[in-house]
Design goal:
By secondary structure, this protein is α+β, with helices and mostly antiparallel strands. The strands form eight sheets. It has a six-stranded mixed barrel. The protein has a four-stranded antiparallel β-sheet with strand order 15-14-19-20.
Length: 509
């Protein structure tokens, strides 16, 4: 049995070392926070390179945190936006960037470089962000180390557009198509795939890069073709549905495509789509009167905002939770054999227009935008390489690994979770499988042949190291044996009895 003990020890050591030495690809997962402020929608002018943002506020956008710099990192809250490409932050001496915002201090970073280029980003109403383009190490998360950072360009702004000055988040990170942020993180971390997902919950959310966290999914991911154009991710609906199948209409012939914009609070549809949804919604409620669409008073009650009267699907006096649940889901069913559908519950599409009125956050507009409110309670997967968009209902709030604390100007570091970041987990079962096979083969070999390697026998305590070309090589204090096997009872002599460091210890009785 001495031979079996040796084989067991060495096999365990070998398999463990093999597992620990094998790198594997991974995914990154970050918590996001919802914030509550006014409704947000920024229209960008023709020269835009950015769009709205992410954390959840009452305006239904979501944020996460990033860190910039080398040994001395600076932390910022940033809205995550699928409709833009750049990172923008307030710079050190910005006079109008909002007193609530932290500023990036270039002199405090040992890794920052000035590219020599100006940063300018303008919006449709004429306001712009101005500054200069810097390059520094950037990682996502409030506690991420410099080793996880990738060097990325960003706008260090000395003048903020009004919408940025009043927002609560310090800045914005754009993850639209063509962004350098996601590509840099993919290259740096050697992630599983060139994809990311956003799971927007009713309170918080999850931002995954390089893969998805299927543990939060309530059903398999369904896929639809995705069109990549400019900074945007488009998908084509083939049917609109309100409640049951009876209240649906084919829209395959429509040329307009919606793009998914996590940085826009609510959703905006062209008139032809709006009229279909309005008709289906009104038909459903009229034909289910008394059992569905429960509310007090009339639609668009006195006090409703004049713009919402013209552009929202409908508004009612503030609904109770039970009344809200009586309304039907609104579904966008997309092209493709997988039947990907975005089924939005009334708890997600209604929003408080005021303290007395709730409205549906789907508005008639010239744009066709699926905003954060319709993306909510789903994991939306953007698979860039395969040009496909995945949709599945998900428990976005429950899946948050370590929820970030509400942002303060000088926040304390928090625990951070990156599932899949330990590169060795997948090799453990393989290693143990190999170990079992080795043990069984050695038991059979020993039982049949009656002998084992010479180093199995000898003094009570020996120290050995393996040499693939010379058989067994003892440490410098021991004799060297070049023959492969020894019979039971053979022994070897030691030149001295000193231990040799970093050798495998075998105690043979």
């Amino acid at each position: 049995m001495k031979c079996l003990a040796v084989v067991l020890f060495l096999s365990t050591w070998y398999c463990s070392a093999t597992a620990l030495s094998e790198p594997t690809k991974k995914t990154l997962k970050f918590a996001m926070k919802r914030r509550k402020t006014d409704r947000r929608r920024r229209r960008l002018g023709p020269a835009f390179k950015d769009f709205p943002t992410l954390w959840r506020e009452d305006d239904d956008v979501y944020y996460t945190e990033i860190r910039i710099g080398g040994a001395k990192q600076q932390t910022f809250s940033t809205i995550v936006d699928t409709g833009s490409l750049t990172i923008a932050l307030p710079c050190e001496h910005c006079p109008n960037c909002g007193s609530q915002h932290r500023r990036f201090v270039p002199s405090s970073s040992s890794t920052v470089k000035d590219t020599g280029s100006d940063y300018r980003q303008c919006y449709g109403e004429g306001s712009c962000n101005f500054g200069r383009i810097l390059a520094d190490k950037v990682c996502i998360g409030s506690n991420c180390p410099p080793s996880e950072a990738a060097t990325i360009n960003f706008g260090c702004c000395d003048k903020y557009a009004p919408a940025f000055s009043v927002q609560k988040a310090d800045g914005i990170i754009g993850i639209g198509h063509g962004t350098t942020l996601l590509k840099s993180l993919n290259d740096h971390h050697k992630l599983l795939s060139n994809q990311f997902s956003l799971c927007l919950g009713r309170e918080d959310g999850i931002f995954s890069i390089g893969g998805v966290d299927t543990s939060i999914h309530m059903a398999p991911v369904r896929w639809t073709p995705m069109t990549l154009e400019n900074a945007f991710y488009y998908a084509k609906p083939k049917k609109l549905q309100v409640g049951a199948e009876d209240y649906s209409e084919d829209v395959t012939s429509m040329l307009s495509l919606p793009f998914f914009d996590s940085g826009t609070s609510y959703s905006y549809v062209p008139e032809e789509v709006f009229l279909i949804l309005k008709q289906l919604f009104d038909q459903f409620c009229a034909q289910n009167e008394g059992s569905k669409c429960m509310h007090d008073g009339v639609a668009f009650p006195p006090g409703t905002d004049s713009t919402d009267k013209k552009t929202s699907l409908t508004c009612f006096k503030t609904l109770t939770p039970d009344q809200k649940k009586s309304f039907p889901p609104i579904k966008f069913i997309f092209e493709g054999g997988d039947v990907a559908e975005l089924a939005v519950d009334p708890e997600d599409y209604f929003f408080p227009e005021s303290s007395k009125i709730d409205c549906i956050g789907i508005f008639k507009d010239r744009d066709y935008t699926i905003g954060a409110n319709l993306m909510r309670s789903h994991d939306i997967v953007f698979d860039v390489d395969k040009k496909r968009l995945g949709i599945t209902p998900a428990t976005c709030d429950d899946g948050i690994p370590n929820k970030p604390k509400p942002r303060t100007k000088n926040p304390q570091p928090e625990e951070r979770s990156t599932p899949g970041s330990h590169p060795n987990n997948q090799w453990v079962p393989i290693g143990y499988g190999i170990l079992i096979i080795i043990i069984l083969l050695n038991i059979a070999f020993w039982y049949k042949c009656g002998y084992c390697p010479r180093f199995c026998y000898g003094s009570k305590i020996t120290y050995i190291s393996m040499d693939s070309t010379d058989g067994v090589e003892m440490s410098s204090t021991m004799e060297r044996f070049t023959d492969d096997y020894a019979s039971e009872g053979d022994d070897f002599k030691t030149n001295d009895n000193k231990s040799v460091s970093r050798q495998v210890r075998l105690e043979l009785v």
